[in-house]
Amino acid sequence: MGIASGLVRISFLVNAVYAEAAREHGLTPQQGQLLCVLMARPYFMGELGSVLGLAKSSLTGLVDRTERNGLVRREPDPQDTRAVRVTFTPKGRKLADEFYMDTCRRIDRLPDGLDAADRDALADLLGRIVRHNEVPVVFMELAEKTL
Fold first, then answer.
1. Mean pLDDT for each 10-residue chunk of the chain (147 residues)?
2. CA triplet 94, 65, 11: central angle to 5 degrees?
3. CA 31 to chain centroid
């Protein structure tokens, strides 16, 4: 299997696992992504659009729906009244933690057929690809979350 085919197929696999976990937690995959991104810190709407790769109208709809579900809230920025940050509600923080841990467990099982050395090599290679392409942090490392 070539690199392009392998990476595309693995992205489909990860997306399917992610979507299944989201569904089981009562979320859409996009809401799951939003919650996972917010785990690092509150974001301004403009920042969220860039990180999630969404147009302003799509992001607004996503935040609106997630806010109606009581998972996030918009807060005005005290330094710039035009700016709005998106942050968790207590219910949203709890659900994000549960969804994140469940998703990590599921995805971590995907390379179960590899021995420890191959898993380490895979993690190293993936990390190098991510760093080289300057991919933003959209999913925290499990070690970061458990600290």
1. 93 94 95 93 90 90 96 90 91 96 93 94 93 80 54
2. 75
3. 9
The three-state secondary structure class of 44 is strand
8 A C-beta contact, residue 116 and residue 99: no
Amino acid at 42: P
Compute the chain's Rg from CA coordinates.
Answer: 17
Burial (CB < 10 A; 0-12, 13-18, 19+), residue 12, is exposed
DSSP string, 83-107: EEEEEE-HHHHHHHHHHHHHHHHHH
Distance CA 63, CA 55 (A): 12
CB 105 within 8 A of CB 142: no
For the question of whether the overall pTM of this predicted structure is more than 0.85, the answer is: no
* DSSP-H helix ranges across 25-137: 29-38, 45-52, 56-68, 90-108, 116-132
